[in-house]
């Protein structure tokens, strides 16, 4: 099946099973993921952990309010890895994360690193020439008043790699999902009803990592203690995705 044939088949499914319908979610729910699961079922996509396109060589992205996810891709290495790490996972959250109102620590929000400036927790993302991504920490860039009492002596000098996403792994994840025919997204009208489907071209790792360097694509970390999932989503604002659209159908 060619790309045009695959897109036409998806549009036909959209017209029959999605267009003119509102996603069925629990009353009062504001969770985009719930609407996404409903949409997958309409297209006959079964939940799976495969790093492959969802349908006919295209990756399905559901409508969201502000940002859209490329994938929930955990790092290849963490500073708390059981065999080679420098601290436990629970200590990681206390050293480099922050508590919420209930006192539960997480590596999300303010502590989570971005490309560019060092954040107030002494962290940022840096990339090497090959496109590997490093979440790094420096004690001298940490502006927390109580940092001396939080960090052990061995973590107060030099630059620590808190997490590493290797370029070869990121390349496979990006191109296995988006490098075949690209992606499509179903859009909602002002009444919350699906009325349009849009398609984006295939995405290469070179183009993707370039936009990570520019900060257009970012790590949206949601890691928290007492939950083993890494919650390492790589996302971009919807305006970014809008600029990738190459065709649309109503």
Secondary structure elements and their pairing?
Blueprint: H1 3-17, H2 32-42, E1 58-62, E2 67-72, E3 77-78, H3 89-96, E4 98-99, E5 105-108, E6 121-127, E7 133-142, H4 147-150, E8 159-165, H5 167-178, E9 182-188, E10 194-200, H6 205-213, E11 217-224, E12 232-237, H7 238-242, E13 245-249
Parallel strand pairs: 1-9
Antiparallel strand pairs: 2-12, 3-8, 4-5, 5-11, 6-7, 7-8, 9-10, 10-13, 11-12
Any overview of this molecule?
- This protein folds into two domains: 3-71 and 169-218 and 233-249, PvuII Endonuclease, Chain A (3-Layer(aba) Sandwich); 77-165, no CATH class.
- The mean pLDDT is 93.
- Strands 2-12-11-5-4 form a five-stranded antiparallel β-sheet. A four-stranded mixed β-sheet has the order 1-9-10-13. Strands 3-8-7-6 form a four-stranded antiparallel β-sheet.
- The longest helix is centred in the N-terminal third of the chain and has 15 residues, at 3-17.
- Helix content is 26%, strand content 30%.
- The chain has seven helices and 13 strands.
- The chain is α+β, with helices and mostly antiparallel strands.
- The radius of gyration is 20 Å and the shape is elongated.
């Amino acid at each position: 099946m060619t790309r045009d044939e695959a897109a036409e088949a998806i549009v036909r499914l959209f017209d029959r099973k999605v267009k003119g319908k509102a996603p069925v979610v629990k009353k009062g729910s504001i969770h985009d993921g719930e609407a996404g699961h409903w949409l997958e079922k309409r297209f006959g996509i079964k939940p799976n952990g495969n790093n492959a396109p969802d349908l006919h060589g295209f990756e399905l992205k559901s409508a969201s309010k502000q940002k859209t996810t490329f994938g929930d891709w955990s790092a290849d290495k963490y500073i708390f890895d059981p065999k080679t790490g420098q601290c436990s996972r629970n200590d990681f959250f206390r050293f480099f994360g922050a508590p919420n109102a209930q006192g539960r620590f997480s590596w999300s929000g303010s502590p989570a690193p971005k490309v560019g400036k060092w954040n107030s927790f002494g962290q940022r993302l840096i990339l090497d020439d090959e496109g590997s991504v490093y979440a790094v920490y420096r004690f001298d860039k940490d502006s927390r008043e109580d940092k001396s009492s939080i960090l052990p002596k061995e973590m107060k000098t030099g630059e620590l790699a808190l997490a590493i996403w290797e370029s070869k792994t990121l390349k496979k994840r990006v191109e296995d999902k988006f490098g075949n025919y690209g992606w499509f997204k179903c859009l909602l009208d002002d009444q919350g009803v699906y009325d349009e489907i849009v398609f984006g071209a295939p995405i290469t790792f070179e183009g993707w990592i370039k936009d990570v360097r520019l900060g257009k694509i970012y790590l949206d970390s949601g890691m928290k203690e007492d939950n083993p999932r890494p919650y390492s989503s790589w996302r971009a604002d919807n305006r970014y995705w809008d600029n990738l659209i190459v065709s649309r159908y109503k």
